[in-house]
Model the fold of this input.
Amino acid sequence: MRYRISKRFTFEAAHRLDGLPEGHKCGRQHGHSYAVEVVLTAARLSGPGFITDFAVLDAVKAHLADVYDHQDLNEVIDVEPTSENLARVLFDWCTANVPLPEGAMVESVRVSETSATWAEYGRTAASV
Done:
């Protein structure tokens, strides 16, 4: 059994996707209102009964604002800027940069380009 928490962030950015059929709308430069959800997990709670204080995740908000907000994602990340790839890039950043108590970890990062779609990258149930 594990505890899970999550926090959601938003930013605005543009991108285009290469390698699509001629005339595909995503091959043209376009923008999205992105939503990013970071999910943390732990088997035990620390402090007053937290996985971590939600304020620790303000580092993610600052990173998104500094690096991604109102940017061309093709110029910001070194892979094709799909939601799937962006979820992996942000998962890796969170894993390396969000200070968590012992036993807590980033379980997944979910990226939405629209209110109806999302992509997620994270640990499998067996690896948590």
Q: What stands out?
A: The beta strands are 3-15, 30-42, 71-72, 105-114, 117-122. The first strand starts at residue 3 and ends at 15.
